[in-house]
Design a protein that fits this description.
By secondary structure, this protein is α+β, with helices and mostly antiparallel strands. It folds into 2 domains: 16-62, no CATH class; 90-196, Elongation Factor Tu (Ef-tu), domain 3 (Beta Barrel). Helix content is 14%, strand content 30%. The protein has helices spanning 53-56, 65-75, 90-93, 110-119; strands at residues 16-21, 33-36, 44-49, 124-131, 144-147, 150-164, 168-176, 184-187, 190-196. Strands 4-7-6-5-8-9 form a 6-stranded antiparallel beta barrel. A 3-stranded antiparallel sheet has the order 1-3-2, with no helix packed on it. The longest helix is centred in the first third of the chain and has 11 residues, at 65-75. It starts with 15 loop residues before the first strand and ends in a 15-residue tail after the last strand.
């Protein structure tokens, strides 16, 4: 979006890579941008020239995107565009107070966000799913989530899924607010237990768990 001044937007995907680390950023070569990562994960995001990645590949402590995604899902952090859709509002994924300022600013959808904040009860809520570890597959992005007692009636969808080194197969999903917090769920043929990340009544009177 452009406001007041003329700008030129350039896609730098082929030139820049994002690396997450808990180490001192000074140990990495020539970061273009340094940004403190989400508090739930700790560490720092580094925006590095892709040409430097070959040097990092030789480090014995490196890990790939699968490991990072498993850690992110375990921390209950939604990835925009993957764990959200075109209807998602911040109230549903627990980012009020961190990604949205409730006292200033103007943005598309502000009225909806403010109304849900003041009255509570977001339309949907983010949950973490503990998946049946006896199954040999992970749910795919967008796969419907349903109550175990009504598997043909979707109540939400899976965003991202991964295998965590301690928790096993886990996933994030957006489900209807009215879904009982103690209900057993199912994703296709995979049974799932839900962990509440966003309170069904979240609003001004029920503060978000993260911020």
């Amino acid at each position: 979006m452009r406001f007041l001044s003329r700008v030129e937007v350039t896609d730098r995907t082929d030139d820049v890579a994002v690396v997450w680390t808990v180490e001192d950023p000074a140990a990495f070569p020539a970061p273009l941008v340094t940004r403190t990562a989400d508090d739930s994960l700790g560490g720092t995001d580094l925006f590095l020239p892709r040409a430097t990645l070959e040097d990092l590949a030789e480090r014995p402590d490196r890990a790939g995107l699968w490991a990072y995604e498993a850690r992110r899902i375990a921390a209950g952090i939604a990835r925009i565009g993957l764990d959200t859709d075109e209807r998602t509002i911040p109230n549903e994924i627990g980012v009020l107070g961190g990604a949205v300022h409730m006292d200033k600013g103007c943005y598309t959808g502000q009225e909806t966000v403010a109304r849900v904040w003041n009255l509570g009860r977001p339309p949907r809520r983010l949950v973490r799913l503990q998946l049946d570890g006896s199954m040999d597959r992970l749910p795919v992005h967008g796969e419907p989530v349903a109550l175990r007692d009504a598997p043909d009636r979707p109540i939400g969808f899976v965003g991202s899924a991964a295998r965590h080194h301690e928790q096993g197969p886990i996933a994030l999903a957006l489900v209807k607010r009215s879904t009982p917090v103690d209900a057993d769920l199912v994703v296709g043929d995979v049974a799932a237990a839900q962990e509440v990340l966003v309170d069904p009544e979240a609003g001004l009177h029920v503060r978000p768990g993260r911020g």
